[in-house]
Amino acid sequence: MAILSPYLTFKAKKFNLYKITITIILCTVFYLVGFYKDSRGTISINATSSSSSTAFRCASTNHSTTTLDFAARHFAQDPKPPVAREHHFPPCEPKFSEYTPCEDVERSVRFDRDRLIYRERHCPESHEILKCRVPPPYGYKVPFSWPESRGLAWYANVPHKDLTVEKKNQNWVRVEGERLRFPGGGTMFPRGADAYIDAIGKLIDLKDGSIRTAIDTGCGVASWGAYLLSRNILTVSFAPRDTHVSQVQFALERGVPALIGIIASIRLPYPSRSFDMAHCSRCLVPWGKYDGQYLIEIDRILRPGGYWILSGPPINWETHWKGWNRTREHLRAEQSQIEGVAKSLCWRKLVQRNDIAIWQKPTNHVHCKVNRKVFKRPLFCKSQNPDMAWYTKMETCLTPLPEVAGIRDIAGGQLAKWPERLNAIPPRISSGSLEGLTANSFVENSELWKKRVAYYKKIDYQLAKTGRYRNLLDMNAHLGGFAAALVDDPVWVMNVVPVQAKMNTLGVIFQRGLIGTYQNWCEAMSTYPRTYDFIHVDSLFSLYENRCGVEDILLEMDRILRPEGSVIIRDDVDILLNVKAIMDAMQWDGRITDHESGPHEREKILFATKMYWTAPRPDQD
């Protein structure tokens, strides 16, 4: 058995090899036969019964030829494609052509008239917000270019004659056919703002660059601010929407920076130490009342060493008391009250000449802290952030200036003179008071925006065209780099720092010699429709994602942008696609382009223009 074993093993292997070979050959033959018949489109099936062991049983009659149909008999429904939301923004009724949502006259009557609180910001509830496009008035025309616009505007754009009658003898504004002419007059300067400013210039130096930013309270048609521009002084003019109807709107049509506002019960929307000069020319603010609260607020926003200028009642009351229809005693008491409040704030009265009086704020509070023993009020504020100024209630305490090492030091740091101030490192940065911002990052940011603005001008030729735009808005300004890059162009920029921004940089913007304001973009801005020729938006929609609707912000942009005005929006590409879809529904013309660094950046840039349209003729439906 041991001898035969290898032979039997070999024979068994050989038999298995034959089986495998025969199986392969049969499979190949059957495959080829099947392929041949399948290529002819039919398979012949014999109807006779096959063996019970057959794997597949087919039935047929009369040995017929049958075509097998392998198509599916049951289908699952395809999912419905996502339905894009259809945006629809019809024009508002013509009566809304001058609609200011947060200063609406009809809504304001619900609020307290004491201290004119009803004229402060009171924004509509969510269910009251208009979802339509505010129409320009019939006949609206593109405003005159600067500097011609300083003295001229189209009557159709601001169709109001009230001031031409009420202020006829004060040279505020005149109607000349289709045009409005602004001679440059004011209540206290009927000979013109230029002559009035020259008179101020004889009392304080307006030419050496130490005064760059100013604020005008109760500005009228903003002639004071308009004529300071030629002296390189940039003024924020403000006045309420009151019986004078459209004084701020007149200012904006002239190409002069202005906002709707009033000094009543809440802080003005600016950080502490913002302005080099504050001005009131017969602004009718009761400066001495309410424990001096209004002058305390002016003190908060004046930089150390800044000036407050007052003309009109009660200054020079000895000459004007009859014309003002007030008694000598009343006017004397009013001036005495103002003088007392100013002293309690440690201000020094520099001069009073004819109708002009000027006070100066101290450069630090070394002496002021000592004289609290004499002036028991106001005390120094202890808790509230001096830069917080969005719906922040005014207080009757004195905002303390930053500490100094010596009595001659300037609190918060010395500001460079203009124009060096624009690119000098702002003291708020050099002092380290803004975490994460350094001198190097400030310089890098300035250079970055020079590069970006140069890129913008290559894409948007209108921005590069001198005189095409005048009133500009930067909705998320950060350090004011966009405005700084345009400083040599004949434009002004309102730099907005959103209250939701991670860092409050508005103080830096003012220290650069630029102007701005706080704003919550979930609400309307305190300005009239058609304020701006151009709007710049940097990462704003990312900031407000999940805070309020994109369409609400865009409708507000539509309200404050002039017909044929332009916008540039920088943001993530997905956000811009959504913005572009809404803009299309608003009948804007826009296109998305690559980032200035190339197509591989997720951040893209949207260039868009608002189309020209107006309300129909009054006799049309």
TrEMBL record:
SUPFAM superfamilies found in the cross-reference section: S-adenosyl-L-methionine-dependent methyltransferases
Membrane topology of the entry: Single-pass type II membrane protein
Subcellular location field: Endoplasmic reticulum membrane; Membrane
Molecular-function GO term, any one: methyltransferase activity
Pfam families membership: Methyltransf_29
Top-level enzyme category: transferase
A single GO cellular-component term on record: endosome
BP terms from Gene Ontology: methylation
InterPro entries reported in the protein's UniProt record: Put_SAM_MeTrfase (IPR004159), SAM-dependent_MTases_sf (IPR029063)
Main location class: endoplasmic reticulum
Gene3D superfamilies the UniProt entry points to: Vaccinia Virus protein VP39
Keywords: Glycoprotein, Membrane, Methyltransferase, Signal-anchor, Transferase, Transmembrane, Transmembrane helix
Transmembrane portions of the chain: 17-36
Enzyme Commission number: 2.1.1.-
Family as reported in the entry's similarity comment: Belongs to the methyltransferase superfamily.
Protein name according to UniProt: Methyltransferase
Highest classification ranks of the organism: Eukaryota, Viridiplantae, Streptophyta, Embryophyta, Tracheophyta
